[in-house]
Write a structure and sequence with these properties.
about 525 residues; alpha/beta; eight-stranded parallel beta sheet; three-stranded antiparallel beta sheet; 15 strands; about 40% helix; globular
Length: about 525
């Protein structure tokens, strides 16, 4: 469109509206008074657009150019509600979201008229069932976490709430998650923001995550404080301690708690000064290498009274993780668990480059960690917790086949709370009150209702996992076999998980990534 024609057309329409309103006012019509604010507002907005120098589009197309910004703003909602198919949505499709909603509400979970996925497209995955299925009790799907160096092992569910801090989520969301964990007898990871009153409100079991900012266990200089840590770690609700090295959505990157968000309440929880910006560095200050890290984990184990202690990482360099394994062998210090966070993990806010292009995806990372632990005869001492886009029973079955002993879900639990995947987590304007500190929004989260939905989602997903395992003949989680899961890698080539992630010694990189289980432990 010629910008001169468009511009003069807008001027003419504004003038026509102004003249019409003036005529109505002159004749004493009520419509003139109703339209007066509209006419004045549009005229002033047109003049402003033409005179401002920040947006070329608005300068060339006054008023009319604002339609483009409006359409751009509502584009995600239009796509999600009118154009997106049941299987196309990202990061989770409508079909995936729907099953979480159904399980959280404890309503119909069946599917009519057959599968929607094209089973002959590359990437399609399935499990091989048996002609002689077995019965698996959902309540049996738990795992003991804590090796011989741990005095207080924890019997964990195979599905738990992943790390989400108070501050990233609202107080009502945190309270609902903890209430659901208490009802369903599964664990709630605090995230690195410390243990808030809302994490303790309902008595759900906690996994206390310690990040690089040492929130909740730091001194006035921001360094780790053994005394402050010990006081909090001996809280009865705290069942495990997790040291975060990195997370999937932004590995190797620190963070900032802006002064505006550092309220007196948040500051009290995190042990920082209120009203100032607080830095979370990219790396830890309590240790600088694998040997110091293991010594730090041992220190936390003693300070907590012998509770299970582990670390979380998004795998980057394979040789670096092998050095960690070597340090375990040399020192004899074994973490009770390692949380493997895939690069497909989510966060409220991360740079595009980190979200899309940094870190190892979950399945490759699980293969690496599992095979290296077995290669160094360490797997019998260390449990593996998997994290990254896990929401269904089949997702859990797949990570069990890859070597995980349990798993976390963050976005699945958020969906159970009522998240609609509005992709507004970093704006402070989450429309359903989950990822916001705006009281007008988070007060919409009814804790009494939402905690039941979280528990329902967990119970129904574990029940679905038990049925899957029974159909495949796996009597327990330890029996899940990667040879029984398949992926179509091309339209005519099908491979099992065992084949895809088996050792490849033909290259140096392959031998390091997948050294293979030299011993079966």
């Amino acid at each position: 469109m010629n910008h001169r024609i468009a511009r003069w057309a807008v001027y003419f329409l504004c003038l026509l509206l102004d003249v019409s309103v003036a005529a109505s006012l002159y004749r004493g019509y009520l419509s003139g008074w109703i339209l007066l604010p509209v006419a004045v507002g549009l005229t002033l907005l047109t003049i402003y657009d033409r005179l401002q120098g920040k947006h070329a589009l608005l300068r060339n197309y006054p008023l009319l150019g604002r339609l483009r910004y409006l359409l751009e703003q509502i584009r995600p909602e239009m796509r999600q509600y009118f154009f997106e198919s049941d299987t196309d949505g990202r990061p989770f499709s409508r079909r995936q979201r729907a099953v979480v909603y159904q399980r959280a509400k404890d309503v119909k979970q069946t599917v009519a008229f057959g599968a929607l996925d094209n089973m002959y497209e590359p990437g399609y995955e399935w499990a091989a069932h048996t002609a002689f299925p077995t019965k698996v009790k959902p309540e049996s799907l738990r795992v003991n976490i804590g090796n011989e160096q741990c005095d207080k092992p924890y019997n964990a569910s195979l599905l738990n709430i992943s790390a989400m801090s108070y501050g990233a989520l609202s107080k009502t969301a945190i309270a609902s998650l903890n209430g659901g964990a208490q009802i369903g007898n599964f664990a709630h990871n605090t995230g690195e923001g410390g243990i808030s009153p809302y994490h303790l409100q309902h008595g759900g079991h906690l996994i206390w995550q310690i990040g690089t900012g040492y929130f909740g266990c730091r001194d006035e200089s921001g360094n780790f404080s053994p005394e402050v840590f010990a006081a909090a770690a001996n809280e009865p609700a705290v069942k495990m301690i997790e040291v975060k090295l990195s997370q999937g959505a932004k590995p190797g990157k620190g963070g900032v708690l802006p002064a505006a968000k550092n309220t007196p309440e948040i500051a009290g929880i995190r042990k920082v000064k209120p009203g100032v910006s607080v830095l979370s560095p990219a790396g830890h200050t309590a240790f600088s290498n694998e040997y110091e890290m293991l010594a730090f984990l041992q220190q936390l184990r003693k300070l907590s009274g012998g509770k299970p202690v582990g670390f979380k990482l998004c795998v980057g360099r394979a040789d670096e993780f092998e050095r960690i394994c070597t340090a375990m062998v040399n020192t004899g210090i074994y973490p009770d668990f390692i949380t493997v966070d895939g690069a497909e993990g989510g966060t409220g806010a991360a740079p595009l480059e980190f979200t899309d292009s940094i870190g190892m995806p979950l399945y490759d990372a699980l293969a690496l960690v599992t095979n290296l632990l077995k290669h160094h005869r360490l797997k019998q001492h260390v449990r593996i917790i998997a994290s990254g886009k896990i929401i269904t029973g089949f997702d859990i079955l797949k990570v069990l086949a890859m070597g995980a002993d349990a798993c976390y879900s963050a976005r699945g639990m958020m969906l159970a709370l009522g998240c609609i995947q509005a992709l507004q987590c970093d704006s402070g304007s989450c429309p359903v009150g989950v990822a916001t500190q705006d009281p007008h929004l988070y007060q919409g989260v009814n804790v009494a209702d939402k905690k039941v939905r979280v528990a329902n989602y967990h119970r129904n997903t574990i029940a679905a996992l038990a049925e899957l395992m029974g159909a495949c003949g796996f009597a327990s989680a330890e029996k899940v076999d990667p040879a029984a899961l398949y992926r179509r890698v091309t339209r005519t080539d099908i491979r099992s998980y065992e084949e895809i992630y088996a050792p490849d010694h033909n290259s140096k990189a392959g031998a390091l990534l997948y050294p293979g289980p030299s011993v079966n432990n």
